Amino acid sequence: LPFAPPSEAGNGWFAATIDAAAPRALALAPFALPVLLLNQLPPLRRRLWPAVQHGLRISFHRLPQPMAVWRRYELEWRANGCFFRVDGVPVLQTPHSPRGPLGFVAWIDNQYLVATPTGSLRWGTEKTAESRSLTLRHLELRQD
User: Which pLDDT tens digit goes with each residue over 23-62?
Assistant: First the structure.
């Protein structure tokens, strides 16, 4: 997840938001190519990329909880922000919400795609030692 801080990027289990359809994010679109070119230089990337993250309203938090046991995951998507909880404990709160209708996607796989702030792409699969699965026991979607 290159949109995350460099110290947090990588594989794993995350709570995150991005709003690429907001007017402030769309205003960045004409600068995409120059930003990718300037991001090739680490000193410039350290200055530019936080502004891009802010413009896209990126919020991100790695979830350290082991996935091998049952957990209760909650997402509240409200007009004034998003709230993520694991087993009732807050793990991420954002002051903003992505635009558009709420969509729900759940999956687990061993494929990856890495798109970095410098414009490079990598993709492939991770080897797994044993079979993996994802089971949803209960899903509730409410509109208040």
Answer: 877 888 888 888 878 877 888 888 888 888 888 888 888 8
Rounded to an integer, what distance in angstroms lies between the CA atom of residue 7 and that of residue 10?
9
Is 103:88 a contact under the CB 8 Å cutoff?
Answer: no
Give the separation between CA 42 and CA 7, rounded to whole angstroms.
14
- With contact defined as beta carbons under 8 Å apart, do 44 and 51 qualify? no
State residue 16 phi and psi, 5-degree precision.
Answer: -155, 155
pTM for this structure? 0.67
Mean pLDDT, rounded, of the chain: 79
Q: How many CB atoms lie within 10 A of CB 103?
A: 7
Which alpha helices (H) appear in 16-134, and where do they start and end?
23-26, 32-38, 42-55
